[in-house]
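User: Sequence in, structure out. Go.
Assistant: Echoing your sequence, followed by the structure tokens.
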Amino acid sequence: MDDYRSLGHMKLAAEPGKYFIPHHPVVKRCKEELKIRVVFDASATSSSGVSLNDCLVTGPKLQTEIGDVLLRSRLHKFVFTADITKMYRQIRLHEQDRVYQHKLWRNSPSDEVQEYELCTLNLEDGPEFPLVKDVLLVDTYVDDIFVGADTLEDILEAKIQIIGLLNRGGFSLKKWTSNCPEILNTIDIEDRAMTPWIEPTKEQAVKVLGVHWDPILDTFGYHSTIDQVTPTKRSVLSTVARFYDPIGALGPMVFWPSV
């Protein structure tokens, strides 16, 4: 929460809130560190019996299909992937909407509980980046970018332009991974993903849109735990269902166990 305050993503509320968002920590081990991410639950019902999500108009799906992004990456010789850091926290809320995004917080049990409102940074436009003008539309899924090119010059220029475009909106990129060493050599070590290709059974394995990726061999990998019991139709179907395969690469293998 100190991070939210120091970055200006929340401030003391100037007026009483109309909805308080419950929040809780999610702890994840990354390398030798424990990282804590704050998760807000806008689906929690208030005293009126409805939640904030219940009151929001559901618009059309705007995300590109995950399978499409992954398959397009197979068309290029060079690819890189990166994650937009704190993406949702870089988009400014209208002031009149902030009363619906209040939360209660105190740094220690001895402190007085204070009421905060969530507020974020401004988003601007950067139309002068022709090489990556469509990247955010077709090669991005929410905050994950998977960009490719067929020449070293194009992939290096794509990296420069995507960084410049996102910087216009206050966005930065972390967790860089690439099958092109020339790309990674220009990225600070702390901004890269963990060591490429650890066994898929390991929590630290490199993942792209939920699929294990070996950037050295430029191959996707799959993993599922098989129960050491006498197989039955139910257990076989359960094992098959555990495979996450958005591009259908395992179709021939899982077809026969499924019928």
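User: And one key feature?
Assistant: The CA atoms of residues 38 and 187 lie 27 Å apart.
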